[in-house]
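pasting for the record
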Amino acid sequence: MKIKLNSIFVDDQDKALAFYTDVLGFKKSKEIPMGEFKWLTVISPEGPSDVERVFEPNANPAAKTFQEAIFKQGIPITAFEVDDIDAEAKRLKKKGLQFTMNPTEAGPVKIAIFADTCGNLIQIYQPPQKKS
């Protein structure tokens, strides 16, 4: 069993695609019209090309309620690993991102949280540095 697709609810698929590609640096993988919405995925240029993030429309009232409740509680919906969290936070701030938590030590990792402009909080984290 493998993880190949991971969904995230968004309030606007086109806005999500622009944010995740233009700001975060992901690459569009698939865009297939499906009626009112589309099958829309991105991949990480630094990760396996067959692991995709799917932008699910939050048109379902249950999805919208869940998304809003998690956001209001300050809980990130997903996390992305970075090599240098301070450099990444600085890069994202230059692009206008507002962080709800600046890079902070959290046990053996360092984390930061920002809003993705599509209704979600996203955490980035830097794992412990390996000793040589």
